[in-house]
Design brief:
Length: 106
């Protein structure tokens, strides 16, 4: 991701036409407005880390009150995970949320 972000910024950043005002904080750090500061790359360490991040991603629409269950979010990959028997069809419907608090900066 670091290399992709660097390449896009260097070769296409000006062509994208992002004309937002750059804050003093961003100027001080020599940052533009192409990438949001709070998003970063994360190397998945092992299968448990991967599973934790998948859980976090699938539960995120519920956390932000966009739906009551992850299965209700039509844009989610959880539907594929359920079809592949990775998640049970009723994942989190019992109120048990398996997302550890230290997955990301939640």
């Amino acid at each position: 991701m670091l290399l992709i972000k660097r390449f896009v910024t260097k070769y296409y950043g000006n062509q994208l036409g992002i004309n937002f005002k750059i804050s003093r904080s961003r100027k001080k750090r020599r940052e533009a407005n192409l990438w949001q500061r709070r998003f970063w790359e994360h190397l998945i360490r092992n299968e448990i880390d991967f599973a934790n991040h998948c859980d976090y991603i699938h539960y995120n629409p519920v956390k932000h009150q966009l739906c009551k269950l992850p299965q209700q979010w039509s844009f989610s990959s959880i539907h594929r995970f359920i079809k592949q028997d990775i998640y049970p069809p009723d994942w989190t419907s019992d109120g048990n949320i398996p997302v550890p608090e230290d997955t990301w900066d939640i």
